[in-house]
Design a protein that fits this description.
five-stranded antiparallel beta sheet; alpha+beta; Beta-Lactamase; globular
Length: 187
């Protein structure tokens, strides 16, 4: 999970200055994490630890929202949570904040983890290197629009809902579900 439920605190580290420096990881590497139902990290692989700048001890049992970049629209996290709480997988582009204020982009694949009775017991996320072209040409403009809508309403929750509804209208106009939209952008 890239962040706690969108109604939760914006970022567990709100005072970390954003540097504007982008970090990268190797195309063949995969960032892996697992969380409990509340979005607290229960597993982090070496790639995740290395790019985030945190130690394993600093990550484990912490809310995944410690990585939440302030430019990441909360409405996208609402969509993500809606999908995984409904026991569905989702693919989404996410910008994360490193411990030192640098950032990195990922194409996340988030799935619910189920027990033998089909109950959600946690979440699993694999993140890959995204296409820089797609981030620049499609994702950044969309996320800027969503963030602007979120910021226009003084009521945080209503602003997030307004942006979420805008995103739903965009998808409806395209005649696509969110994942179809993400895959239509190419690789």
């Amino acid at each position: 999970m890239e962040g706690l439920h969108p109604d939760s605190a914006v970022n567990a580290r709100q005072h970390t200055p954003v540097t504007g420096v982008e970090r990268f990881f190797k195309r063949q590497d995969i960032i892996v994490s697992k969380t409990n139902l509340k979005g607290h990290i229960t597993y982090a692989n070496r790639t995740f630890i290395d790019i985030s700048g945190y130690s394993e001890n600093e990550l484990l049992l912490k809310p995944h929202s410690i990585l939440r970049h302030p430019d990441m629209p909360r409405s996208v996290f609402k969509l993500l949570w809606d999908m995984i709480e409904a026991k569905r997988e989702i693919f989404a582009y996410v910008v994360n904040l490193c411990k030192n204020g640098d950032h990195y982009w990922v194409l996340a694949h988030v799935t619910p983890s189920l027990d033998t009775q089909g109950n959600v017991i946690g979440y699993h996320s694999n993140r890959r290197v995204p296409s820089p072209r797609i981030v620049q040409e499609a994702i950044l403009p969309l996320y800027r629009q969503l963030s602007k809508i979120e910021e226009e309403n003084k009521n945080r929750k209503q602003g997030m809902q307004d942006a979420y509804e805008f995103l739903q209208r965009v998808l409806k106009e395209k005649g696509m579900a969110y994942d179809e939209f993400i895959f239509s952008l190419g690789t």
